[in-house]
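Quick start: what a row looks like.
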Amino acid sequence: MELGLIPIIEVLMIVGLIWLVNMVVRRVNSWVYESKLGEIRKNLPPGDLGLPFIGNMWCFLRAFKSANPDSFLNSYFTRFGKTGIYKAFMFGSPSVIVTTAETCRKVLNDDEHFKPGWPVSTIKLIGRKSFVSIPYEEHKRLRRLTSAPINGHEALSEYMTYIEDIVNIALDKWSKMGEIEFLTQLRKLTFRIIMYIFLSSESEPVMEALEREYTTLNYGVRAMAINLPGFAYHEALKARKRLVAVFQSIIDERRVLKRDRVAIKAKKDMMDALLEVEDENGRRLTDEEIIDLLVMYLNAGHESSGHTLAWATVLLQKHPEFLQKAKVEQEEIVKKRPAGQKGLTLKEIREMTYLSQVVDETLRWVTFSLVVFREALSDVTINGYTIPKGWKVLVWFRTCHLDPENWPDPMKFNPSRWDDLIPKAGSFLPFGAGSRLCPGNDLAKLEISIFLHYFLLNYRLELVNPDCAVQYLPHRRPKDNCLAKVRRI
């Protein structure tokens, strides 16, 4: 009888040992990163720092590779309440996640206490001289030098004709191709547009090769920073290296042509502007600055626009009442057009009130960039909690855009919710906020509006798999890349 108790005791001892090891392991990050904070430790936000080295990343990746990405933060809400601010260990650093409109707005607009805090792994991919990592004063200088050629009224007017032409050519071509991956084709279209603006390049092989490199790069940005063969981050680093080599060769070629005063085109593109622009002290951009700006702009300038276009078209097609309302608005714009006018004008774009609501609702519903990173420059108190100096701050856009207190029935696509609506500060952040607001936001909206104008007037979309499952990394997308047929009306 007594011998029969031995296996039970052994099992209990093993279970107890496992529990003890688990408790010790889960406290390692806390001992390493919190013990040195002194009295500040008492005022840290609620949360946990997860496991050693990987922190909470396993839970994050598991959630965003499932059909319920919000389960990651919902677990925090359940365990710690809705405080709007939580501690975690993310992307290799002790971090604080801010999740409400108020807390996100505070962080994004406070350049005195917060600087860019993107993970080192991301900076290695996007570039240490790009907008994501440079200090405030340097950011202000580069933004001042590059904003007019991207978002200025004159620049946008100049881009319109090309965008219209390329959109109409693409739509006509797709309508004759049968089944296509609609998202893939849109990403190629938006990449062609951004390549034209920056490099005047329309070489099909070059564009397809570069677009593939950017796809690989993006998968690495949201992955764990494991630089070993077979992992997404390792492949992304190699893609970055190839992109840098291509851009350096283009810069070298342009410098030779300028030195020899060879005119190869009438149009002056962004590469020309970046090579020639000087600040008030006569300082020009270095090759590294130009390359990192190109890596960033070409990436942001096609990925977000391509995905937003795909979702806007799909969501309108799934809601005929919204589609019809948007279509009628575009027909009215054409009817009011003066005789002899060819193509759209910026004035007409600005008169697309309902289409603008469609775009904003798509941006809210999709939340292409789910998070941006900051770093505390000093100990900062928010909502009664202290963010320690040097800790990363993850501004979680997704929770702002899907907060039912600000957006009733948030998962429902409803452009009419924007009728006479002024969003609460911090509740709508598709392009960020503060001094680091996305520098290409007006260009992105222009592209989207032009495409939807011509699509609504002349085409419809037939989804092959209307109930296709969705993946959320690196961005929200149908797993079949929106397999569909584009039909001419």
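That is the whole record. The first strand starts at residue 85 and ends at 90. Residues 116 and 250 are 29 Å apart (CA to CA).
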